Amino acid sequence: AVICISSHIKNSVSGSSRKNYLVPNALRQEFLSMPKVTAITNYSRAHILVIGTITENKRPLELLDMLFSLHSSGFPFHVRFIGSLNEKDSYGAAFAAMLRMAALSGFADHVSHLDSQSIIHEMDNAHALVHFPLEEAFGLVVAEALARELRVFASKVGGIQDIVNLVPGVELYPPNDFQQLCEGLQRWMLAGHPKLVGAAKFMQSRYSPRSIAKDTV
To answer: What is the pLDDT of residue 38?
Structure first.
């Protein structure tokens, strides 16, 4: 038998095992506390997070290129990339070079490592998460972001689709369609870059350890 963390994984192994059990990742308890009310609604520009190791699968370089275009169009925002960066790798080096230009333009920065409490602080003081991988077995960062009521813009791949199912206000796009992603971000910013109020309770009911255990039994 195989324990599968998403329908994507379950479908992938369905022909090679006798039994498959769908048991999603549970969210850590600290992410399930109700998000703190902050002054971010007074920010004149959107604060966006991109969380994940700087790798070709996560595509932060392609995202940064798209965000350069968005910035050049006059949209006010700031994006923070959070994740380990290896500048000895050719992809990491290309990202670092472009990031330096974005930092000089004043709309992007990067942090390598943060503990869970620091990640929660970042989420509670941001408006949205952009997560656009080519492949994703589950997509825990998406569930964590929704638990902190961030607006989520993501690629329609893997386990991300399980997580956002029935959550209103989440925007999924084909994994190579950066144009649609850019247009979605533009619409959201023009609407005042709101967070996703109500998503925290939805994540609590679906991905708390107690809910996962109850549904598994």
So the answer is: 55
Closest CA to 33 of 139, 123, 153: 123
Angle at the Cα of 95 (from 62 to 102), degrees rounded to 5?
85
- β-strand partners of 154: 131, 172
CA distance 31 to 141: 11
Per the structure block, which two tokens stand in for 206? 């679906």
Task: Kindly report each contact of residues 118-123 with a partner whose C-beta sits within 8 Å and lies 24 or more positions away, as own/partner.
Answer: 119/51, 119/82, 119/144, 120/30, 120/31, 120/148, 122/49, 122/80, 122/82, 123/35, 123/49, 123/148, 123/150
* pLDDT tens-digit series, residues 121-166: 999 999 999 999 999 888 899 999 999 999 999 999 988 998 898 8
pTM: 0.89
